[in-house]
């Protein structure tokens, strides 16, 4: 056999190796990576759902690990995500802050409260984003979306779609310190 | 119920594709004629099944069936009908189904048109196409089922990505995919020829019309994509050297080389192994493009949601198909011998240069596209390759290509005599340079060496392409459609070169901040903001600005750039205001609200941009014209007669 004609095959084999390496690294360079990852989370402060007079925000949460999870009662994918969040809350490795993204009727809280009482509350705290301004600051394009924020207020990871038990384990738990950074509060307390 | 039937139809299609591959490849190898015949039946069955699946998914979109996950994710009750249909290819699963459907259409066309080819050879072609269908159907069913249910059903859908809600997009992917998938036919012919060990010029003749057709579709698809990004991505760029754009451009470059080398193989029986390799490469690059777009290994504005498990599947498939074809090539190509020679200035030489330069251009694009990945492999992340790399490297290969084009079309086969053409070539060259200088100095103030070069090269290509056809007309000789098609395609190339030069050299662009009643001057035109107002679309709200454009105090047009915010996904999309004046685009896009009634804008004056869309259109039309040449028509007439008599017998 003339070795000259093996050259294309050889070049292609090298290409496959590069692509295979690329795939295995694609978790880190993933397409939907937010430009905010690795940076300070933009300052946010939102009213607590059950107690609109009280505000919760990034400053108050500094020094703690937390997951910021955007959801809405209008969002079917959030419903699909819900069981995974409940499971995650039972693990109690990190506190989960839910943001009720009010797309349809910004002044009405009853639907969100009904959702939580019916499906269970996976959140340590729930706040409401009434005008969607914080969603824009955080670059949230579509619910559900979740951010993992470290004690320095830096976004460590952004999950652009629903959390599944596998994603929770692979992307969230793996990034937390071995010992829970902050003892998680009791589930459902808000 | 229906979606389950759709899923079931895909399973049946998978089985039929498996049979098609099995009978098509093993039948001729083992000399079983009934197996050979079975391959064709499997093609028809597979087509019906895939068409059924597509029909069911379209029906689910049209009837708002939000119990289907893919429909719920990509449609909405407020989405207009046209986009509910186009939403079929709005995301990964559906566009994959479109891919499979188009492959089934091409396969059926090959099965029908190949009735006058040797039976075993045709079966092998269908068998190879069956392998490809099987792989893609398996991929769909295993990782990307478009019929997955959502239980409980969503009350309403998540809507189609707003960027994609545009008439340009409704037609862009099907045309581009038709081109991509069409290259599979050339690939299948090459593999069949190698399997059979019969790699004579017949193979090239049979493949040529298919390759030209696929190339013409690819040309249209790329141009439409460029046009679409020009007016929807907002800031008036038409080419970004983005991985996904490159993924469609590389197969085009290699397919262009393939068209030319097929001509040599058919006419002179030369370049045989090289042509085989190009046929494999063209389709391989189209598969590679699919991999890059869908696996998420590269970051791109056009990418579908990334998923490494999908990427792994495609990579394995890629390895088997391309690796298999290249192994076959390594085994068979050494058997090929060419004994014909040719002189240095013969047409063969020029076509060889054409091929080398096109492949070098494709390789430089591939290198740039994969550079981030290659760097990553060697542990050096965060490397980004953009226009500063692509432009010079690409031009380095393309400028000589374009210069040689004008001379090459006048060279003779085999003999290296250019004396006869030397005088007219010189005359056209002088005219072209004069034209370039006239345009640059006469119309545009900027004195630019590159502009004269570009416009000169483009004009030279057009003029020298016209020499031969005009000469034949003057001598009352007939002109075949193949020659006319080639001429038109080359003129299209020249037009595109002129347009690119003009657009790149003479675009004026300014970012403006205007309040109501204020105006600003860009490239000799005055843009005056009259005001902004909210407007409502069927599924979006928008801010629309009213801008009057005038020149020397006389109003020319009123433009209405919009920022549309789509209700469901709360995403905004710009729709630029564009007015075309003698081929020059007056372009304005609306930016952000700067407060106090002031808005930011980007205004551009892009001369010759119309030619940029016309050039490729000429190329594609040239391809279509060449396809309709008499020798292919005769083959088709024979096919029609065969079909008719077969139908008659059936009755």
Radius of gyration of chain B (CA) equals 26 Å
Helix tally of chain B? 18
Poorly predicted tracts of residues of chain B: 300-305
The main pleated sheet of chain A reads as: 5 strands, mixed
Q: Write out the CATH superfamily name of the largest domain in chain A.
A: Glutaredoxin
Spatial strand sequence of the major β-sheet of chain A: 5-4-3-6-7
The average pLDDT of chain A is 79
Give me the count of strands of chain A. Answer: 7
Instruction: Quickly count the helices of chain A.
Output: 6
The CATH topology of the largest domain in chain A corresponds to: Glutaredoxin
How many whole angstroms does the radius of gyration of chain A measure? 20 Å
Based on the coordinates given, report the CATH architecture of the largest domain in chain A.
3-Layer(aba) Sandwich
Structural class of chain B: alpha+beta
The average pLDDT score of chain B comes to 88
Commentary on this structure:
The complex is a heterodimer of chains A (190) and B (651). In chain A, the strands form two sheets. Chain A has a five-stranded mixed beta sheet with strand order 5-4-3-6-7. In chain A, strands 1-2 form a two-stranded antiparallel sheet. In chain A, helix 3 links the parallel strand 3 and strand 4. The longest helix of chain A is centred in the first third of the chain and has 19 residues, at 7-25. Chain A has helices at 7-25, 58-61, 76-91, 110-119, 133-138, 165-172; strands spanning 45-47, 55-57, 66-71, 95-101, 125-129, 145-149, 155-159. Chain A has six helices and seven strands; from the N terminus they run αββαβαβαβαββα. Chain A is elongated. Mean pLDDT of chain A is 79; it is low at 27-32 and 180-190. Chain A has 190 residues and is α/β, with parallel strands linked by helices. Chain A folds into two domains: 1-30; 35-175, Glutaredoxin. Chain B has 651 residues and is of the alpha+beta class. Chain B has 18 helices and ten strands. In chain B, the strands form two sheets. In chain B, strands 2, 3, 4, 5, 6 and 7 form a six-stranded antiparallel beta sheet that branches. The chains are: A alpha/beta (190), B alpha+beta (651).
